[in-house]
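INFO batch 0412 | record 1 of 1 | parsing
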Amino acid sequence: MNLSSKATIYTFLVIGLLVTLVLIVAPVAYAISLSFYKLDSFVGEAKWVGFDNYIAILKLPEFWRALWNGVLYSLGSIVLQVVLGIGFALILNETFPGRNFVRGLSILPYLLPTVVVILTFKWMVDGSIGIITKTIAAMGLPPVNWFESSGAAMTSVILVSVWMWTPFVTTCFLAALQTVPTSLYEAARVDGTTAVQRFFHITLPMLKPILTVVVLLRAIWMFNKFDVIWLLTRGGPVGSTEHLAILSYRHAFSLFDIGGGAAIATISFAILSVAVFFYFRIFPLEDD
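INFO prediction complete | emitting tokens
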């Protein structure tokens, strides 16, 4: 490698590190530092209170409810995204007329702005003109109060998240399927295996590395997802869809408890860090 190539590599490395430091490390460090102070605005006088914010937050029933809501929302979204993503990837990996067009169309939900998706869903379940509402009524089923009951509200945010993010999971699994040698399937067919046996003994083991990464990424993103829940339910009804991200926002910008909001965000960061550590211990990317 010549001197010019090394200079280029080090230049991009330094730029990347500086961007990470300014846009990620510094804000995180500042947020953590705020959690040890009592202040009611970002320009107000800060008073050092140590761990008092953490103690007060951990005593709140709302915190534990928000933590449970976040876990429930994440698990429900991830399971459906992975199951549907693998299923759609297997279908799109087959040969059929118009396959490339269908593949391109399948990524459309992932490309739509979140606001557009939320408004469309609200129109579809509108009590007067919603197509879903009218379909349920035509089938003779009782009406569903999508945003007025806790179960229906949580189901709504999970379904919208699944619709938006399943294309990303599908694309990842479809790319991984392209790397599976067809000779493995041909040899398995010669041995008389069924499609289910080929899936569990060939496809799934070959998808394990990408499955490990996808589940981790989706868990982090879903646990921190703010816009979908905020635009759909604002954490309601009665806090039934409020998770830690919204609770942190509400404390910081509605209750003017900047330190408490920062403490919730820091606790959330710590929970995710510990979860990622144990996740990689249980599901290592490379087998020993």
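INFO post-check: The chain has one domain: 52-282.
INFO record closed
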